[in-house]
Every structure is written in structure tokens, then in C-alpha cells.
Amino acid sequence: MLFRMLLLALRGFALAATLTLIALPAVHAQERYPSRPIRVIVPFTAGTGMDLLARTIGQKLSERLKVAIVVDNRAGASGNIGTEAVAKSPADGYTLLMTASTIVQNAALSRSVPYDPVRGFTPITLTAIGNMALVVHPSVAANTVAEFVALAKAQPGRLNYASPGNGTPHHLAMELFKLNFGIDVTHVPYKGTAGAVTDLLGGQVQAMFLPVHVALPQAQAGKIRLLAAGGSHRSPVTPELLSLAESGVRDIDVDIWYALFAPAGLPRDLVGLLNSEVAAILAQPEVRDSLQRQGLNPVTGTPEELARLVEADLERWTRVVRAAHVGVD
Fold first, then answer.
1. C-alpha to C-alpha distance for 318 and 310, rounded to whole angstroms
2. Residue 50: which of 127, 121, 141, 112 has the closest Cα?
3. Alpha carbon distance 11, 59 (integer Å)
4. Using one digit for the tens of pLDDT, what is the confidence trace for 208-221?
5. Does residue 123 have a cis peptide bond before it, meaning omega lies within 30 degrees of 0?
6. What digits encode the pLDDT tens for the residues 72-130?
């Protein structure tokens, strides 16, 4: 009897030890987040607004979370290569996407993009707004949006506007503007911003939408004229200048927004952690000052607000693309 009881006890101990060993991977899988480097994929080249945000926020986030933050520039296909890479990554919080409103504009321009901007990602937070400005060459007889619209209506098709290429935010912004006022202004696409701005300064084209921080130095030098800056609100860079909304433009969100996403299915606790950490970072005065000097206005919000923005923008830009028959290069 004693031997039988001892044997049963040993078997029980062995079973408990086996169950403990089986449970170890599960315990390990629930280790503190983050416990290894976090990769932030930027789907465009270094030096862009989203790259600047990723590196600025990444440095501070690394200090706060005590892990390395690796910024990975995956440029190509108008941002689709890097964006697709994030969509196909595990939703474990170790792969994030810093992108811009181009994520929805690309989807509006083509149904064949390799991701779904609404269902393919977990929204975390807005990070910044890049204000756009409507500018004209000084030879254009218009000092306000209303005067520019009147001039365009009086001379249908005679005025030209530049963009860095078909389907770019600059292009879509002007097409939305044209649809709003019912004017005919001819699009001249370039292969990049530099050539477009050069011909604008030379008067070969008469108008353009430009980021405010790019346009302001040229306006201060008298080489171009600013007609409006900012969408629903005035740009803090040019507080004395009317916004598009104040100038009578409906559905005016032509500004470029920047945001942080994760692959679809990221657990809510990790979404909440990353949202609060980024909000705390963007509230720091030195971070805000640094970004504003680069033409980026730091903003934050809830994941739900970002989700609604993505859905609304996808619907709006799809409508603009179809109405204006916008194609891509």
C-alpha cells in the first residue's frame, strides 16, 4: 500500500512538472511589452514629413519604453510597398506604420492597391497636420481666392496649375478646389516638386497648391503670392492669412494629415499604450517647436477619431477622383 501511494505521488509530481513546462511558453508569450525593438515602417524616403515624425517620435518613444525604435524606410510604388509590408505583419505591436493621408488617396486612385486602408490596419493616433497653401505667380491679377475664382471663370482653360505629378496631394487638392467652384484651370503635371516650383516661380504656370512651409519663403521674397493657407483652420505659420474654409471652399480638408497605424487586430491594451505615449511625446514643448519649424502642426486624438477620418477621406477622395477623372502616372 505504501509503495502504491508513493508511486501515485511520483506520478502526480511528474504530471505537475510536465504541465508547468507546457505552460512556460504561454507565460513567456505574455511577457512585458515591449521586450524587443519596435520597427516603424515609413513608406517614403528619408526627409519627408512622415520620416521626420517617425524619427522624432521614435527617439522619444525609445527613451520612454526603454527599447530601440528602428525607422525603416520602405519607399516605392507611391508608398504602397511599405504600407503593404505593415498590413501583412503580425499584430503584436512590434511593427508600426507612420504614414500620411496618401494611404487613402492611393486607394481612391486605384482599386488594385495591395491593402485596405479601412480594414487592413489598426488606427493608433493622428500625429500632425501639414497645411497646404493656394499660391499664384505675382503676374496673376488676384489677391484673394474670390478674385482667383473670378479670373478663372472669366478665362476658362487659360490659367495653368502645376503639381508634382498625377494623383499627388497637390493635384487632388486643386481638383477638389476646381469642383467646388466649377472652374476650368489646366493641370500641368511634373515629375517632382522641384520642377513644378521652378516653373511657377518663372511664370510658366500660374498657380499651385504647396505646403505652407515651402511656399512661405518664396512669398516673403515676393516670388509668389499666397491666397489662402490651411483647410478648416488658419495655418499657425500664417495666422494673418485666411484659410480655405474662410475663403468659401466647402469640404476643404486638403491639408495633409500624418498618423500612426499598426496591422489589423492589435490588442486594445497596446493601442491604448501607444496612443497615450505618442500623445505625451507630442505635448512636449521642444517636440512641438521642432516639428512646427519643419511645417508640421502636432495633433493627437483617439483611435476612433482616426478611424472615422480614414473612412471619410476615402469616400471624399474617391468622389473627387471619379468626378475629375484623375489618373495616375
1. 12
2. 127
3. 53
4. 999 998 999 999 99
5. no
6. 999 999 899 999 999 999 999 999 999 999 999 999 999 899 999 999 999 999 999 99
